[in-house]
Amino acid sequence: MAGPVIVDIEGFELNDRERVRLQHPLVGGMILFSRNYKNPGQLQKLTAQIREARAAAKDPKVGRSKILITVDHEGGRVQRFKTEGFTHIPAMASLGCIYDQDPLRAIRIATETAYVMAIELLSCGVDFSYTPVLDLNYGVSSVIGDRSFHRDPKIVSILSRAFVQGLAKAGMSCCGKHFPGHGFVEADSHIAIPEDNRTLDEILGEDVKPYEWLGDLVLPSVMLAHVIYKKVDKHNACFSKVWIQDILRSKLGYDGLIFSDDLTMEGASYIGDITARGQAALDAGCDMVMVCNKPDLADELLANLRYNPNQNPHLERRLEELYPKYKVCSWENLGQNVAYKNARSATDKVFS
């Protein structure tokens, strides 16, 4: 039984309140942040605690269900674990710059960079990272910027495919974000409600192209943008049946898992309280909704959300695609992994 809510925790280990929260039947995943990381050994203990807490649930259906342990670990500005051994991953724009000079070299480095990222996370018990960013770099967005591979959607697609291949080599799945595109607007949806005034045809012809070209076989999950595209729908993509059902599901034929972005962000605030936001996102067609940095709001949503598992019979199947494909060695044994050593050596020559 998979739940549709992703929650977070406060520190380096679980407290009693968090153990109870992780056993709630509506919780299907959790997201880690920099505040949850001290070193690889501590992270391994924490991910083990999370799984143990889930397995200890009184409800046997919950106890038997897995919980997806996730992180925003893209590289550059958005890399949650940077110290005590984790490789510093460069911003994705650096790969775009290499591509402009030598496309084949950039493709190889993208794959090796992703492999290093994924195997380090997996070795510490983290299942999944919300990457790659498919937004286009128009040079105006304060929140996207160098998180994007490139301005050209074809190059974004090529480098993303190579990056996803590297994740998959380590056994990790991926998430394309932020559909249908966050790079054109200047405002940061964490602290504002961005509005994009382009037409649907303009957005489909540029920002949506990577999603169309890559599809759900390459991208088993996507995350939606807290951006209002005024000429398409009055609601931002996370709350929009037009974007989710008419365009993403029907027009693009997408069958993977759809995440909302964090419902505590300012870009989601116009809908109402946290329960209204969660309900609106699920009713619009999101598979999973995320509540970050505000544990009281997470508890409020779990207490008040109206959700029947039968309303989304595809959730379990889609979520299963995001779990690691095979077991990797522990952090302590990474140094004996020849593929990891070779990938580290190749990327260090480029980025050190």
TrEMBL record:
The active site is at 190 (proton donor/acceptor), 261 (nucleophile). GO terms for biological process: carbohydrate metabolic process; cell division; cell wall organization; peptidoglycan biosynthetic process; peptidoglycan turnover; regulation of cell shape. GO terms for molecular function: beta-N-acetylhexosaminidase activity. Substrate binds at residues 72, 80, 147, 177-178. Its EC number is 3.2.1.52. One of its GO terms (cellular component) is cytoplasm. The keyword Repeat does not apply. Gene3D superfamilies: Glycoside hydrolase, family 3, N-terminal domain. It holds the Pfam family Glyco_hydro_3. It is an enzyme of class 3 (hydrolase). Signal peptide: none annotated. It is found in: Cytoplasm. Transmembrane segments: none annotated. The keyword Nucleus does not apply. PROSITE patterns: GLYCOSYL_HYDROL_F3 (PS00775). The record marks 188 as: Important for catalytic activity. InterPro entries: Beta_hexosaminidase_bac (IPR022956), GH (IPR017853), Glyco_hydro_3_AS (IPR019800), Glyco_hydro_3_N (IPR001764), Glyco_hydro_3_N_sf (IPR036962), NagZ_Beta-hexosaminidase (IPR050226). It catalyses: Hydrolysis of terminal non-reducing N-acetyl-D-hexosamine residues in N-acetyl-beta-D-hexosaminides. Residues 13-304 form the Glycoside hydrolase family 3 N-terminal domain. Pathway: Cell wall biogenesis; peptidoglycan recycling. Belongs to the glycosyl hydrolase 3 family. NagZ subfamily. PANTHER family: BETA-HEXOSAMINIDASE, BETA-HEXOSAMINIDASE-RELATED. Plays a role in peptidoglycan recycling by cleaving the terminal beta-1,4-linked N-acetylglucosamine (GlcNAc) from peptide-linked peptidoglycan fragments, giving rise to free GlcNAc, anhydro-N-acetylmuramic acid and anhydro-N-acetylmuramic acid-linked peptides. This is Beta-hexosaminidase. It comes from Taylorella asinigenitalis (strain MCE3).
